[in-house]
Amino acid sequence: MLYEAFDKFLALDTWHTRHPSDQRRFYIALSSVIKDPQFNPDRLGEYIRKKKTVSRDNQEDLLNIAIDGWVTSAWAVKDYLEANGL
What we know:
By secondary structure, the chain is mainly α. The chain has helices at 7-10, 20-31, 41-52, 62-83.
């Protein structure tokens, strides 16, 4: 499965912190799937929520907020690559 590329990143207790080391691990995982036409950052968010049992409905949950941040980052990279034909 496409989103399993993030399992190693998600296995760490600090995945949600946005620490530079965690960001690096996230972008390494992202680089392995970002050009796959099936990759969708919103589906990545769904995958993370399911894997970490985080409800989308709890907008105050810090893990939910962190997931939204990773989804936003993935969209930014995807949009950048597409806009520049990369």
